Amino acid sequence: MSRFNKHTAPNAPRDPYAETLRAHRGHDAVTTPRTVAVIGGGIAGLAAATGLAERGVDVTLYEAAPQLGGRVRSWPTGDGRNMSRGFHAFFRQYYNLRALLRRTDPALDRLTPVADYPLQTEQGLTDSFESIPRTPPWNLAAFVLNSPTFPLTGLAEVDLASAFELIDLDFPEGLSRYDHESAADFLDRLRFPDGARHLALEVFARSFFAHPKDFSARELVTMFHTYFTGSAEGLLFDVPIDDFNTSLWDPLGTYLEDLGVSIHTEQSVTQLHQDPDGWHVTTEQTTVTVDAVVLAADPRSSRRLIAQIEDATRELISLQHRAKRRRNAPAFAILRLWLSDTVADDRAEFLGTSGYAVLDNISVLERYEATAKTWTDEHGGSVVELHAYAVDTPADPTSQDAQAIRAALLDDMVRVYPETQHLEIVAEEYLVHDDCGLADVSPWHDHPEVTTGIPGLVLAGDWIRCELPVALMERAATTGFLAANQLLAGWDVTGHDLESPPRRGLLRRSAPGRLLRKFALTELTERG
User: Whole-prediction pTM value?
Assistant: First the structure.
């Protein structure tokens, strides 16, 4: 029997234009026993397992790593220290991820707001979002008026037709217009001032671990809509009060086990096979037979498992071809340092950077993470984390190229925070991974989606196509719930309502906006 979210999503967006997507209505729980294997214990798999288990489905979850959380997991390293896969911002637009977290933290007390999200160029120019209104179009006007990287004289150079697209989106109908266009190409035709181009837009591209020339303009415009031009939630965000697993995933794992979910960590699924008896899921230890599979593993593992399925149906062949055409983004590096003294008191919890050799952001963990603060209190030093996105190096931190990235990160840190120059590194952890999907310029409809057309097989993850303006962690959570809903609807069981940022741009969702849109389109047409 469902214990949570019987009919509605447990979150209340402040954006009046946020949309509720009503799920299928049927039985409150399965009326006959149903078994599902969820492959992958990251956000997508956890959301899918939650959505299914709350409706009485017998769920078995497989995760290759020792911990739940996927690319948002953490683990202890000894001496009161811990490590993770890197910084993650829990934006207020992440409605469905927050709904997932509310299963064990109804008031979201295990998240804490970050005071600001400053962005700094190599030249020292800094943009801040702390005092900018959250609601468009006032946030746009305030950004232009206050940004040192966007002088008013720069407005004369902006291509109005391209800028118009940022407030004239329509999901998902308008996404195909960006097929084959890269973020770099879009930025070129947009003609933003160089500083604003780096801080307001290229920061988004690199948060996907991609070079702007490889990154899709579709994703860039979607991000701009979701976080700035189309949502009233603003660009500020929350972070967990402690490491990810202590704050988020360990409690959720306990919640799932209480629902009867069988969780198997450190077990990789090696093969999927379907026959009249159901889906056979094989790991190194065993093979189980289930009614359905939610494939929510990392992109490379998911592609491998899809390629190995033996079937001659048109749906499977199409899925295999589309999956084969996907590729992973370049590697990203994470360097966490435990220092002999603290950084300056006025350093932000999180600082985005642009124009440095390799550094994309720097965070000071004792400002918000309890484990790091305890270490700082005991040892007197800061815990600092440095990120480099889209680096051209093998996913091996011991390689010569990766060590060069590490050295460049340390040099950049000193340039950004000069007081660190003479601080001793007491301990460090260095990771290099390349397991993120690339949001490339290929046609939108060529990307795999949640529904496969293959009975009993659904997909979830941040690399899966979604018709809502969501990305990163929120796309993972949303597709996980959508995958659960797809299976539940097939069994005539009530699914889980979801929330979405507005699917229409600023000029499409009110009568005055539509009138202004009509006028603007006429003017742009007359200008050629």
Answer: 0.93
